[in-house]
C-alpha cells in the first residue's frame, strides 16, 4: 500500500493490499502451516514464478501481514508467519474457500490438483 495513494473507499484499499491472484493463496497457505518457507510456497503454488513469489512476499511484509525471519545459517533459511493483522484475514479467506467449495459442487466442477 502506498500511503500517498488516494482511495475511493475501504474496499479499494483492501483489494490493493490483499487482492490479486497470489496474495490470498500465500496467506491461506501460511495460515494452514503456521510457518512457511519460500520453497514450500513454491511447491504449493507451482504456477507462480520465483520473481512474482518474492515480490508478493515483500509486499505482504511491507503491508505488515506477514513476518519474515531470517536465520543466520548457510544456506540462508527464511521463514514466513502471519502477523496479527494477517491472522484477522483468515476467517475471510476461509469463507471464500467455503463459498468456492459450494459453488464448485453446485456446478459439478471437481478439477483440482490438490485440495486443502
Describe the structure.
The protein is of the alpha+beta class and 116 residues long. It has a single domain, classed as Orthogonal Bundle (Arc Repressor Mutant, subunit A), CATH 1.10.10. Helices cover 54% and strands 12% of the residues. It is built from six helices and three strands, in the order H-H-E-H-H-E-E-H-H. It has helices at 10-18, 23-33, 38-44, 50-62, 84-88, 90-107; strands spanning 36-37, 66-71, 77-82. A three-stranded antiparallel β-sheet has the order 1-3-2. Strand 2 (66-71) and strand 3 (77-82) form a beta hairpin. The protein is globular. The relative contact order is 0.14.
Q: What is the end-to-end distance? A: 29 Å
CATH class: Mainly Alpha
Please compute the radius of gyration using only Cα atoms. Answer: 16 Å
Tell me the domain tally: 1
N-to-C SSE string, H for helix and E for strand: HHEHHEEHH
Helix vs. strand class? alpha+beta
Describe the structure using short key phrases:
116 residues; Arc Repressor Mutant, subunit A; alpha+beta; globular; single chain; three-stranded antiparallel beta sheet; 54% helix
Short précis:
It contains six helices and three strands. With 116 residues, it is an alpha+beta fold. It has one domain (20-105): Arc Repressor Mutant, subunit A.
Present the secondary structure layout.
Blueprint: H1 10-18, H2 23-33, E1 36-37, H3 38-44, H4 50-62, E2 66-71, E3 77-82, H5 84-88, H6 90-107
